[in-house]
Design brief:
mainly beta
């Protein structure tokens, strides 16, 4: 069982920055496809960004492209989401998700169904 834990959420003003971190247990972290999703009150969970293992191809939702950057440190079993130029509409609970590509193929890294392991989420609030 892979344990996923997010950290780094908080309250920030419009235009500010935050860095979210997510650690995932397991000895094959370099094989994990890792994704960030978010869910605002009353809305469905949506894709934010993802990064594949073994090469690190990255993906971004159009709404965050150019403002958010995903990266990973396999030595620390950690994935980061650097968020800049934050807007009130970025307010949500941010979830980290992992999928072990040694045991399954991840075809669409922006799909919730592709991920087997999820964290509890961290709240990001952007004030106007």
């Amino acid at each position: 069982q892979v344990q996923v834990v997010e950290s780094g959420g908080g309250l920030v003003q419009t235009g500010g920055s935050l860095i979210l971190a997510c650690t995932a247990s397991g000895r094959a972290f370099e094989n994990y496809c890792l994704g960030w999703f978010r869910q605002a009150p009353g809305k469905e969970r949506e894709f934010v960004s993802a990064i594949r293992g073994n090469g690190g191809i990255t993906y971004y939702a159009d709404s965050v492209k150019g403002r958010f950057t995903i990266s990973r440190d396999d030595a620390k079993n950690t994935v980061y989401l650097q968020m800049q130029s934050l807007k009130p509409e970025d307010t949500a609970i941010y979830y980290c998700a992992a999928s072990d590509t040694a045991s399954r193929i991840v075809t669409f890294a922006d799909e919730i169904s592709e991920y087997d392991y999820w964290g509890q989420g961290t709240q990001v609030t952007v004030s106007s």
